[in-house]
Every structure is written in C-alpha cells, then in structure tokens.
Amino acid sequence: MSAHDALRLERLAIGELAGVDLTLAPGEILCLSGASGSGKSRLLRAVADLEPHGGEAWLGELAQSATPAHEWRARVMLVPAESHWWADRVGEHLAGAEPADLEALGFMPEVLDWQVSRLSSGEKQRLALLRAVGREPAALLLDEPTANLDEATTRRVEAWLTAWIRARGWPTLWVAHDPAQIERVADRHRRILDGRLEEREEGAWT
Predict the structure, then answer these.
(1) Looking at the 3D structure of the chain, how many domains does it have?
(2) Where residue 171 sits, what CATH number does that domain have?
(3) What string of DSSP letters covers 112-144?
(4) DSSP 67
(5) DSSP H or E segment with residue 78
(6) Per-residue pLDDT of the chain (206 residues; tens, 9 = 90+)
(7) Is residue 28 part of a domain?
C-alpha cells in the first residue's frame, strides 16, 4: 500500500441506503449531505467498520473485510460529531501536538494542561480533529466537523483541515449541511436522497 491511496466503496449498503459505488482519489474531499436520518452518519460508520454492512470498502489494495478492525480504523479514521475523551487532561489525548497547529485552531499551548471537563463542545470538536490528524491516518471520515463553531472559527478550521488533507493526500468523506461550506471545501458533492447517493451539479448545492 502506498503513502497515497484511493478510498473505494463497492456496493456498500447499510440500513435503507442502497449499494454505494464510490471512489475518492488521494487528497480529494467529497462532501455528503442529506436530510436528518437519511443515513449520512451510518454510512461513515460503515466505512469505518463500526457497523455491519453489505459490500466492501478498499484503501488502495487493502480490503476492509481482510483487515483487523482496529488496524482499519487507524488508517480510515472517523471523527464523529460527538468526540470521545477517556483521560482527564487534554494533553493526554494530544501527545506531540505542535504549537502551530494549536494556534491555527485558536488555542494557546496551555490548553494541553486543561481538564477535558472545562472544554466547550466547539473546543472539543477542534481538538478532536487535531487528535485525528496527529495519528497520521490514510483517509478521513468527518461527521459535520464544524457543526458547533461560529463562522469565523469555521473558516479557520476549514483552512487548517483542507491544508492537511491536501498535503497528506487523504481521501476524505466530509458530512456537511451548509451549502456555503460545501462550495468552499468540496471537490465533489453527493446527497443522500431516497436511499441513494445523488451527484450534485455545480451550483445545485441546496
């Protein structure tokens, strides 16, 4: 498997979502939208091998079904809408965090000494993204990664995150609901409608 691999879904199906055939090139961002309950988060969880599903997912020549789950999830990394924290102190989750990355996300280095319990939902969301990219995955699955952020912070996170994605060549599935954000960050946009993925034409973002 090379440093930059495509992420490929073959007839992947979960819940009411019919078999999905999709290939994401290295460094490509595909935004996924759809009504609440349409299956966006479940699709990401299936790609991350967190829920039983039909079909197959591939990272380069590596098949999900032939890979131990923990190894697959380390390579194809899901950042859920609600992040999980298992230690009391922020720094225990962010070994090796660079000051430049903290600053880019609006933090001072002192945040590493904070208790997780004092973090707001938006702060947790930003730090969970930093935690994910610091683990050097090979692909990213992002479930509304800026949902709890104001406009200025959203733009800041988008710039930082897309720079990482392009530099590392990570194929990325990004669940988003804001048409303006989709226009800013997406190379392609698909919407889940009636149990299927629909390609969206440029300018047809709603």
Answers:
(1) 1
(2) 3.40.50.300
(3) GGSBGGG--HHHHHHHHHHHHHHT--SEEEEES
(4) S
(5) strand 76-79
(6) 445 899 999 999 999 898 899 999 999 999 999 998 889 999 999 999 999 999 999 999 999 999 999 999 999 999 998 999 999 999 999 988 999 999 999 999 999 999 999 999 999 999 999 999 999 999 999 999 999 899 999 999 999 999 999 999 999 999 999 999 999 999 999 999 888 888 765 444 44
(7) yes
